[in-house]
């Protein structure tokens, strides 16, 4: 079917206020609402954004030629409880906010006339999710038109690598009705590599290259159906040639062992809320790949198509996860009440979306669900694995198992509410469990290492192709000894545990990798990973106006802190030492740490006004010895412990240099941080200088000197204005702000902010930013 983007000219209305405006999709309705501390909402879990009911309306002309065709609309994601009306007639609905769905327009179209498509969204029942969900039509929409018979169903072309060694590929096509002929063409760019006919065709592509993270080669498949010698329908998909295997010898891609350097990702896009743009997903995956990650786990819902496409192009492996709950609620109004009725369709929709993406290597049927430890829930593990395998037998199925949650559920002490009664004595609640886990994190790791835990987990893990352990490092060695054929991985881990975890990953072949929480910070679950100080003890940082979790290697603007330096050292990717400095504007204050952040150090030696303050300097390196010098004077020499050498020195502006030495005494690498000059200005650093109409671009904003050195301790309010375009968002990574990202103003945080703009017409898009440091502009060419 011919697909066209259907994202322009929608009318949006907040049903509570009655206010309406024209919007371009994707669109996050929740960002339009005023944040609240009123009880009955999801509070800190949803970053204090309330729920609501919203209506999207789109008017369009249905040409008379459609009368003999099949017309559908594909929604990639609507959060949540969507009801779709055409000319006031209900034509479809969808409950789950994270899976795609298709609605046929045929039975309610007025041909040759203007038609009205209306989408009602209901996110009003709260508390709902454990993190910020966004609301509304937050992913793209597609209009698809094809013949009444002989059309290729949406996602109807599947490509499977039969044998990577011989480049043997199978192409299957699902057609509605009859076709005289089906032709399959495989292309590399515009070069035809091979052709075949039939709905089930096998081809060998001897000159093709295999897809792998180091060289993610993708190809294009075009399938056409014919009737009476004429083309009736055309479908195009991309694919990569690759084969995966797993077993006691580890995880292999095209026969080569791969260790998963992973991170967990929530779906929210920082300043854009949940609105999912291809450019945003590509940027995030690109930054993660360049940082050294080779795998991401969607947490805890299916990734967007745009994210999968980015992973295919950039060579990022994907563990795509279906749900955060089954039938036991984790919040009173989450998806659990609808799960039983829709889980089969959820599986189909995710697999249909994922099947042709070479980046996808594994499916997860749930995160930290307690049901497998109950008589009713245990049989579901086998049933769900089988249901996934019926849709896709080529990929393994896993789940993120939390031993503490399973043990509590087994005893009838659910961590989460099992009913809408928020006062249930059997449930402690998600936030309370996080607070407890923050205190007893190491105990949670070790609680997995017991005979009782082994008896509980073994029947569950044995039903999975690969067992994922959340905070279960204590199982790694035990499993290697007692269950050597069981393939396992750390599906969710504390970042500070990475060194210990990775030692075991490298020791045991069947332990295939580690996914830290998290690779990228996110909205909601406020304060989970935030480090507080004397006036802000931990978990008071979750109070309003807290906004972000604070637990990412990258913050919500895409800036990475010192946890990245630690990870690269542990993964053996660093060629020189990494210097991180604990925030000097809090020097001398009592520090409150959390388990979900290993360090809050920043790669900067520019802290105006902090001369003489005690600085904690962290140097990350695999070297045998680290030497630290301040303005040429020796501060000290230390041997790193678990790839970290920590120094204390009185701050003075200038240069801070770390030199790494091998055991032989030979210098192996050096890094220098420099203080900014006193004269500062606001600098705009557009990541793209050319756009097409409708594209978006990211423009980092820094408070810096003429050399580009960012000053961490001179934050200013900035206000943005765009000509020939739209300022979609302006904000910073500051974790506790009241000003929404859509107002056009914000205060920088540690010298940084971010603007996101959209091109509206050919010519030049200009972003102008004003502050107390002056006014500056940047121009982007729009084609």
Automatic annotation (TrEMBL):
Keywords: Glycosidase, Hydrolase. GO terms for biological process: carbohydrate metabolic process. The keyword tRNA processing does not apply. SUPFAM superfamilies: (Trans)glycosidases (SSF51445), beta-Galactosidase/glucuronidase domain (SSF49303), Galactose-binding domain-like (SSF49785). It comes from the Bacteria. Pfam families: DUF4982, Glyco_hydro2_C5, Glyco_hydro_2, Glyco_hydro_2_C, Glyco_hydro_2_N2. The keyword Hydrolase applies. Residues 10-123 form the Beta-mannosidase-like galactose-binding domain. GO terms for molecular function: hydrolase activity, hydrolyzing O-glycosyl compounds. Residues 250-399 form the Glycoside hydrolase family 2 catalytic domain. Residues 160-242 form the Glycoside hydrolase family 2 immunoglobulin-like beta-sandwich domain. Residues 612-667 form the DUF4982 domain. Residues 694-772 form the Glycoside hydrolase family domain. Belongs to the glycosyl hydrolase 2 family. This is Uncharacterized protein. The lineage of its organism: Bacteria, Bacillati, Bacillota, Bacilli, Lactobacillales.
């Amino acid at each position: 079917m011919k697909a066209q983007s259907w994202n322009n000219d929608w009318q949006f209305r907040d049903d509570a206020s009655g206010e309406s405006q024209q919007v371009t999709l994707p669109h996050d309705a929740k960002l339009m609402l005023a944040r609240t501390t009123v009880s009955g909402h999801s509070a800190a879990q949803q970053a204090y954004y309330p729920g609501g009911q919203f209506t999207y309306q789109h008017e369009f002309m249905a040409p008379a030629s459609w009368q003999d065709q099949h017309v559908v609309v594909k929604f990639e994601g609507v959060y949540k409880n969507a009801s779709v009306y055409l000319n006031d007639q209900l034509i479809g609905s969808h409950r789950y906010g994270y899976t795609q769905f298709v609605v046929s327009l045929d039975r309610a179209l007025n041909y040759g006339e203007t038609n009205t498509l209306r989408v009602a969204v209901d996110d009003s029942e709260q508390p709902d999710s454990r993190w910020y969900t966004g609301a509304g039509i937050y992913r793209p929409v597609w209009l698809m038109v094809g013949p009444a018979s002989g059309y290729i169903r949406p996602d109807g072309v599947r490509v499977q690598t039969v044998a990577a060694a011989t480049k043997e590929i199978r192409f299957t096509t699902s057609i509605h009705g009859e076709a005289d002929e089906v032709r399959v063409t495989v292309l590399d760019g515009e070069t035809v590599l091979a052709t075949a006919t039939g709905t089930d065709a096998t081809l060998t592509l001897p000159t093709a290259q295999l897809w792998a993270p180091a060289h993610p080669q993708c190809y294009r498949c075009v399938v056409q159906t014919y009737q009476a010698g004429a083309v009736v329908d055309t479908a195009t998909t991309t694919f990569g040639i690759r084969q995966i295997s797993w077993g006691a010898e580890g995880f292999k891609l095209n026969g080569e062992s791969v260790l998963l350097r992973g991170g967990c990702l929530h779906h929210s896009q920082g300043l854009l809320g949940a609105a999912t743009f291809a450019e945003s997903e590509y940027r995030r995956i690109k930054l993660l790949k360049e940082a050294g990650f080779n795998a991401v786990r969607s947490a805890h819902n299916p990734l967007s198509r745009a994210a999968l496409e980015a992973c295919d192009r950039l060579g990022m492996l994907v563990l795509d996860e279906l749900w955060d709950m089954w039938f036991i609620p984790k919040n009173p109004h989450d998806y659990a009440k609808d799960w039983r009725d829709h889980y089969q369709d959820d599986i189909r929709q995710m697999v249909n979306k994922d099947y042709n993406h070479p980046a996808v290597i594994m499916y997860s049927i749930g995160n930290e669900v307690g049901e497998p430890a109950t008589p009713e829930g245990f049989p579901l593990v086998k049933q769900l694995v089988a249901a996934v395998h019926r849709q896709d037998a080529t990929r393994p199925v896993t789940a993120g198992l939390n031993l503490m949650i399973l043990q509590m559920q087994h005893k009838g002490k659910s961590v989460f509410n099992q009913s809408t009664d928020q006062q249930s004595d059997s449930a402690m609640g998600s936030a309370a469990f996080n607070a407890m886990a923050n205190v007893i994190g190491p105990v949670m790791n070790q609680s997995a290492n017991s005979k009782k835990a082994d008896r509980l987990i073994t029947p569950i893990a044995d039903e999975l192709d690969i067992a994922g352990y959340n905070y279960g490092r204590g199982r790694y060695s035990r499993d290697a000894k007692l269950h050597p054929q069981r393939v396992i991985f750390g599906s969710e881990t504390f970042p500070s545990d990475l060194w210990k975890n990775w030692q075991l990953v490298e020791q045991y072949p069947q332990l295939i990798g580690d996914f830290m929480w998290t690779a990228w910070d996110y909205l909601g679950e406020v304060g989970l990973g935030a480090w507080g100080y004397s006036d802000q003890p931990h978990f008071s940082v979750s109070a309003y106006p807290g906004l972000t979790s604070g637990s990412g290697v990258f913050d919500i603007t895409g800036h990475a802190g010192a946890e990245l330096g630690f990870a690269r050292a542990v993964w053996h990717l660093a060629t020189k030492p990494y210097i991180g400095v604990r925030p000097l504007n809090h020097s001398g204050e009592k520090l409150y740490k959390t388990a979900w952040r290993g360090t809050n150090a920043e790669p900067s030696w520019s802290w105006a006004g902090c001369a003489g303050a005690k600085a904690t300097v962290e140097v990350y390196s695999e070297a045998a010895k680290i030497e630290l010098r301040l303005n040429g004077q020796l501060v000290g020499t230390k041997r790193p412990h678990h790839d970290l050498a920590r120094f204390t020195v009185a701050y003075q502006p200038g240069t801070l240099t770390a030199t790494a030495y091998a055991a032989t005494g030979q210098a192996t690498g050096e890094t220098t941080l420099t203080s900014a000059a006193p004269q500062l200005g606001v600098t705009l650093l557009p990541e793209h200088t050319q756009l097409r109409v409708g594209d978006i671009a990211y423009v980092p904003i820094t408070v810096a000197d003429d050399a580009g050195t960012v000053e961490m301790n001179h934050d200013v309010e900035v206000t943005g204005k765009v000509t020939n375009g739209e300022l979609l968002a302006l904000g910073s990574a500051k974790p506790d702000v009241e000003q929404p990202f859509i107002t056009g103003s914000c205060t920088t945080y540690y010298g940084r902010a971010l603007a996101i703009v959209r091109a509206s017409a050919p010519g030049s898009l200009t972003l102008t930013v004003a502050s107390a440091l002056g006014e500056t502009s940047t121009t982007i060419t729009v084609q």
